[in-house]
Description:
About 60% of the residues lie in helices and about 10% in strands. By secondary structure, it is an alpha/beta fold. The N and C termini lie far apart (about 125 Å).
Amino acid sequence: MKHSLFIITFLVFGSTLSQDLEEAIYLATETFNSQRSPTTYSTLLKTENTFKKNLVTKDHYFAYLFLLVNKANYLDNSNNQTEAIQVYEDALQLYNTQQLNTIFKYDITEYCLKPLGILYNKIGDYTNAENTIKHYIFLAEKKKNNKHRISGAINLAQLYYTIGNYKAAIKIAKAGLQLHSVLDTQKQKLKRIITNCSIKTQNINETKIVHSNPDNETQYQLALKNKDYKLALHYFQLKYVSLKKDLLSVRDKAKLQFEEAQLHYKLNDFKNSSKQLQLALKTLLPNYNSKTLPKQEDLYAENTFIDIFDLLARLQTNYKKSLSCYDLSFYVSNVLTKNLTSQEAKLMHLSNNRKRSESCISLLYDQYTTNKDSTLIVNAFKYAEKNKASVLKETIGKTSLLQLHPKDSLLIQEQIRLQEQERLTNKLIKAQYQQDAKLINSLSQDLLEVSQTLKQLNHQINLKYSGINPSEVSIKKLQQKLAEDQAVLIEYFYGETTIFQFKISAKAIAFFKIKKTPEFETAITNYITYFDNSSNINNNITKYTTDAYQLYQLLGFNHVKGQPNVIVIPDSFLNFIPFETLLNQQTSTQSFSKMPFVAKTQVLAYNTSALFYLNQNPFIYSNKVLGVFPVFENTNTTLTHSLKEAESIKKNSNAKFLMYSKATKNEALQQAKNCDVLHLSTHANSGTFRIPANIDFIDQKLFLNELYSLKLNNNLVVLSACETGIGRLQKGEGSMNLPRGFQYAGIENILFSLWKINDLSTSQVMASFYKHYKSTHSAFVANHLSKIDYLNNKAISNIKKSPYYWSPFIYYGAVTAKNNTYNLNYLLFTFVGMAIALLLYFVIRKKING
């Protein structure tokens, strides 16, 4: 072997010296292909470094492209998917930058784009997978290449099936079946996708049409859907026997072994389940010792590992071993997602991590009920925080790192590229809505290039700042901050079967479990419904008071009763609950001003994660306000009372206004750079499945995705508009609403609304807010006092004092007490008043006594 390697090396370097570089590259590649192995691959890498330094002509670059695609193919077949992707991306970048398509006839789709799209799908980079597949479908349509149109239909339909977009998968697969020259094997793949999607969506009629005589695979999928696991195992074994196992990849073998293990687990056959899982690990890790769990450093970016470790965790009888298995799943998940660059791709991975966190917290809670060890609560809290707003945490973490190292060119370049990525994504959403195929293709290519650049930057930054974990929450530091703020923190984890509640004060930490019963979920839904319109509460005040007190108890908010300052970290549907409106005791009164609302005794601030509260900068008061008031005069959406709102801001601050036609989007964003408080009094919309949340200016809308591409530095943003806090719930990340967009853009303190609000009551609440903001220098306190003022205002009727009118605005941000100047002045006035009263007393007494 040593002699053959010497000959290969001699031939290659001899060729490099004596022949043209182009021929040397081809010779090196063909020599490697004739005997692919780790050793010959190592030799190829050494020669490649020599070639790269001397590339000059287009022929050189084309020969090097040939080397790269063969190198990537080898890595893919060797189960080094992440490295394979990197090399395919290098090949594609070379092909595009050198414009090799203008000189050479080369099937870039077959040898690069197609395998790259499949690999993206395998590692869960679904955004790049979709962009890549759509790109080569566009090329195939342009060149009328049916072969690539068909393979594109198969791969795109398979991608949509993987991510659960079954409707789109069926549509693409059906269109693929209509194409000319579809081979029988390709028809089977497309029909299989339609069948599997139909089973998932319970469209059995569709399944029967596609497969009137169902095969073993179809019968297997149907049995799974019907939870007939014994029958499913029967058809699985029939399917497995018919497979040509010697042609299966390592990954496919391991996946089949896991599938069988899962079936045995469903049948309570834990022994055979464990046996199959060990076989799957041995398949993926040939040197694996089944007596212990694999080490982290032996694992790689393969999602089958996650499935294996999650099931292994459920098979353990010791909670520590279960947690060790789950931790390995988390590790592999992180390895997979660290190469993802778009937040859309990252968000798709949150669901499984979320379920895993719930399992870990459940294990720790059960153990805690037995031995009351407080370290178990701390560990459970870390699992709760691990996947809470993780994408937003990562973004804010990058911004924080740049603030620490403002001159680092790598970090600066990363921020520029991230903003560019979000701008392109926003354009792509609009192009897809308009069905502009040419623009979609162009934007998809641009996004792929940005993604490749970000990966390279990420790699360099991770090496430079290794060991830094900005997402870890220190309980000690958290308690120190709570002591400073004289506050208590209450955090919820809204799982699939259970809601967990953590209560953390300056001196203690507590752990509670809330059963997620149908009654509990109904109570949440009903309470949110109260705020759909103004009449829901007023039509049945007695029922509202009963439900408000019941929910107060169900949510365990009585655990923080008596605490003056409370930080609430909600989760899932709890994001839409205004906790200030809960009642802390039963009442029979019909008068809203007399009801024992939480708002009367406690000041609340909300946040997305305990980490954000912990790392928050101190609130710095400023009265420099930019007010944006489109008003929408002479339309059916005129905001008449917003003019009163503007007057109150002007009275209590140093304000500049963009009114009427001047309230354009570009002007507002431009002038926002020069103010500390940005106040938007306008209309907003929570969005739909296709259209993101948005807020109106006089000329156009500002969409959520546009906020992702901005960098804002305002100290406070006030969104005086309807349902700005409402958005699509993303499991693990929270509500995809406008406040999240502003947080993403860099805003720490935000005041926003949870439902469609009354124009008049909004102006009244806002007037009170700015009055107290001026006197207390605290948005936290001012928001609380504005609610109390509204309830105590005798000029407002009882009907208008319904929580619907005074409680829509909630505050996400820093907990700041009243300013010292205000407190000193108050004390000074008090003492002066007492002195004057005392002096008058003596004067009057002296006169009476002569």
